[in-house]
Every structure is written in C-alpha cells, then in structure tokens.
Amino acid sequence: MNEPSIPPEKQEHMQILVSELASANTAYHAHDAPVMSDAEYDRKMRELRALEEEYPDLKLPDSPTMRVGAPPLDSFDAFHHDPPMRSLENAVTEEEVLAFEERAKRFLLQTYDRNIEAFDFTCEPKLDGLAVEVIYENGFFHSGGTRGNGISGEDITQNLKTVRGIPLRLQTPEGGPEPPANLAVRGEVFMNLQGFERLNRERLEKEEPPFANPRNAAAGSLRQLDSRITATRPLEIAFYAVGRVEGFSFHSQSHLLESLPGWGLPVSPVWRKCANLREAVGFYEELLRGREDAPYEQDGVVLKVDSMELQNELGSTSRAPRWAIAYKFPPKQETTQVEDIIFQVGRTGAITPVALMKPVRVGGVEVTRATLHNEDEMRRKDVRKGDHVLIQRAGDVIPEVVAVIEERRPLDAEAVPMPVECPICATPVDRPEGEAVVRCPNPTCPAVVREGLRHFASRRAMDIDGLGEKLVNQLVDSGLVSEPADFFALSKEQLSSLERMGEKSAENLIEALDRAKKPALARFIYSLGIRHVGEHIAEVLAERFGSVGDLSRADTETLVSVHEVGPQVAERIVRFFSDAKSRQMVENLLSAGVEPQAPLKAAHGDVGGTAFSGLSFVLTGTLSGRSRSAAKAAIEAFGGRVSSSVSKNTSFLVAGERPGSKLKNAESLGVEILDEDAFERMLAREKGS
Length: 689
What we know:
- The chain is α+β, with helices and mostly antiparallel strands.
- The chain is built from 25 helices and 21 strands.
- It is 37% helix and 19% strand.
C-alpha cells in the first residue's frame, strides 16, 4: 500500500513554525525580550502539533512539541561527565574570600613565577537549584544529566527536553560566530519564586504536600521518571560553564557568558565583571541587600577568575577549582523550640497542625509559627511539644519545620494527638480513605466561613485593598458580614463604628470595594473557593467559558474536555454549582453589582496584534487608581508581560507613589518611565482600539 504523498507546502510550513517557535523561545528565555504573545505562541504550537499528527514522518528533531514529555521510564541510566563537574569551595566571611585570593596569587607565584597584583573576577549569583550538563552534537540537543558525584550522574535527557529555556537546536547569531560542532554546557536548573509559589498553591488546592523550597521543587521535578510531569513544572535554567568544546575557544569567563545567549543558551539573570576583589565583594553586598526582592532564590555569589589562561594555570585540587569560590549568604534556616502545637481550620475544612515556637529571625523576618502540613508529616518528623527544631523559610512560603534535633529533645517532650473533633465547632472530624488531610465536614463552621471570606478578599482573588485578616475578623465578629456579597453592602457609617477604623479609612475601603466590582473573570472564579480550583485552573476556565453563567451550566463531560481539567476538578466544579447555597452565594454577588470581566482571549480571540504584544513592563511604587495585581492583569490582558526586575529589555517602568530602587535602575538603563496617568492613558487607548 502506497504512503500518501506529503504536500511540499505542508513540509515548508512545518519548518517555518518550528523556526518561529524556537526563535520565540530563545528571545524569551535567553534574552528576556519576548517577540510574540502567549496566545500567538499557543496558536502556532497547536497548529504544529496538528500537522505533526497528520504527517508524523515530517516531525523534526528540534520540534518544540517534544517539550510535552515522553512515556515514563523504569529508572535512570548513568550519565558520565568528562571532564568532571567539580564542586566549589565555600566562604562565609570576607576574610575567607581574601584568603582565597591570596592562595591563588601564591600558587601562581610559586608554580609559574607570576606575580599577580589583582585578578579580574566574573561574579554570578549562586542560584539555588540542581546542576546539570547538556550535550549538543552538530548543533542539536543530544543528551543531558545531573551532576551526581561530579564524575557520574543520572541521565535525565527526556526531562531536560521539557525545560523551555534549553534550546533543542542551537542558534547562530546575526553577524556572530556559529556554535561549536560539539558542545557540553553546564548550568543550574531552578524555579523562580513566582513559579514556585504558583506550583505550591496548585498542590495545596489538590491537597498535596507543598514543596519545602524552590530547590527541592526543581530537583524533584527533574528526577521524575515520567517526563510529562516535569513538562508541567515552571523550570528555568542558567548556564555558567562548559565541559568539552570542539571548534571554539573562550578567552575568559565573561566572554563565555556573553557568547552563550547568542546560541540560545540562557545565562545567570545578573552577572558582573569586576576589576578587583573589592568590586567583587561590593557586588556580593549589592545582591545580599536585594536578596528578599529577587525573583529567584540565591544563596550566594560565585567569584571566578575571569581569564581562562589563569584558570588553566591555577587548575584544581582533587575536589574544587583553585580559581573560583562560592561566597555564601547568611542561612535562611534557624533553630528554635516548639512551645505548643495547635490546629487551624482552613476554608475547605482542612485541619492543619501548626507549631508555635519561641520567636526567631529567619531571612530577616521574625518567625513564631511554622506549618506541620498534616498528620502524616507531623508523625513522620515526630515533632513534639518542647522539641528543638530546625526551621526554614523560602520566598513567601509559610515557614516549616525541617527536622527535629533529637539530641536536644527534653525528657518531658509531649506528642500531641490530632483532634477527633473540630477545634472550632466540635463536629467530628473526617479523614477520607486515601487522603492525607483531616477535615471538618461542617460547611457552616465559623472557621470555614471566616477563612472563605478572607480568601475571597485576598490579593490573589478579588484583591480588595485594605480588607485584611484583622478587618475580616472584625466584620464577622460584629455580624456585619457572613457571606461575600455582604462586603459590598457595607456603609461608611457601619465601618466607622468599628474599633480603630476612622472615617478616612472607611472611605478608602468603600472606594476599594467599588473598584473590586469589576474583577477579571479568572480572579472571580478563584475567589469562590471551589476545591481544587487554583489560580491557573481558574484562568483556563475563564478563557474556555467566558462567563460564570456558562461555567455554572457545564457538565462533567464538557469540563473534562478542557485541557488541564481532570475528572476530580470537574467533579468539584459541578458539585459546587449544584449546591443551592453556593449558587445563591454567586447570585448574591452578581446582584450586589459584581461584574466579572471576560478575558480578552475569550471575548475577542487572539491578542497577538495588540499594542502591548512583546512589551515588557515593570511596576514600582503605589498606584492610586488600581492595585498592583489589577495593573498586572490589565497589561497581560492586552498581550504584555510583567517582570519583577528592570533590565535593558524592559519596555516601560510604571512608577507610582514612593517608587523604590527600580526607578533608579530604569533611569540608568534608559528605560522609558510612565507615571500613573500616562499608564492609564495607554490602557485607555488600547481599550478603545
């Protein structure tokens, strides 16, 4: 039987799509300069996938559709490094860094009779992730593995293919050198804090234990035997070194970091060449000051002698190079003592054990409590009242107990049992078979109602400015609010009567409530607190259905047909809208004047041609007309992208009142600065176009 002929125009179109998508990936990940909107990227990806399904023999080895993952493996094969991937010596004080430089100078003087007065250093943030090596042959991705013991790691080729920042085919920059025929490049796979927080929120929605920190999340994602799971994780990579290279040579570390992005290989988000050790220490201090505001976890700065010639002469010990050192930041882990273990009830009725501890500062923040997650985790770690424990804090994640220091356990340390009744309403608790969470099944439990109201008003949901935890508690305790719609019926007089609530504060809250009446549909869906529906799934549902009415009428079969919506999520959505009280809650909100806004994609289709397409915005300071998250949603609705830090690729800095250091950075880089009025005019023009 003859195979059907393949139209040449189809083959050419597939090649164009692969090239365009690869260029978009490189622009976004290696240069922080997006060239197409997410909607356009997704449309082209769907088109390519359909063509590959129709003509499977035409699938190219660097097709971006390969990033979805492959069938599960039984185990990982070994991956060998040649030359070895050596670890770094650590320094925790400036004196140790000075001693490192003196050792390097002394070695060169004694071995080569070279008297070096000062080294040029290249300094890069020490990203907290998992070290890997990726091999390219004739410009194409060939294989990759973990560092392991430096000589041999695990072959995670299929997983690395799913990391969008890793090109499947190297690029040749315009007017620049072609990539080497064979290249082994080394880097750190990490997860930025925004992606990490989103992943943990999704896990909590599914009642899965959250990852302790971004490093664990990245490492766990890369070591999945099922690469389709890895493909769903928000992984990034920064390359910082090479192994074997054929057909090219680097004369310095700074030359290497300047060359790699031209071939499509991202490097550290921030790095600097320093003329001496004093400048290098200054760079360390600069990153340390900005540590809490950085978009990713970093645990120090790596100082490298810039010259490759000097690196080769300095060589390595059996364990580490003599030409580099990791200058570590102070730790974010501390020890303290558990004074009590209490149980909190969440908005879904989940009962969470929480350790109350002697106050201790971790990462610049005073910590007095830490989550123990659930009964199984509390038992596994064997945390008892009176124990001395190691705690850690990463990003905005609630501090957690890492481990008990058993050698310091008091004789009277007391194991605390999980409650058999809800600690708030005394309803017998329930733990369904196969679940890790003990739950209060009473939907009218005061804690469930209170937490649901706090969730509704929270920053990631309806984002009602000024309506924080303490005020929600006051409103509930005073009987003014018992369901979300009640917020919008509040008067200035009612609010002014509350303790520590002045007339001006009451006016501000009324204005904030009025602004919140037109939320993005995705935020509104998320604010309803439907179990298993996190922010990402809420966005998927908003784009697919376009209104809360259409979503409420969808059956399980329709919901499951939506990409990323599984049977469990679909069942929860149907159950929510089938419940009379839930339906009434939604109807009351709509009657109170809340008008969820359909996303641009749902209302008008693709946003690829809007004026914001390919533009990168950074927000700083306080905006008076809308919240920070509302401004971000407006930019993204018109195809723009919001970044957390200013770079030479930033299109606009939107500066509100009391802008921070980002304003100075933007001025020094020549980035166009918009005040709030100019920003609002830009949005108004786009809405009217």
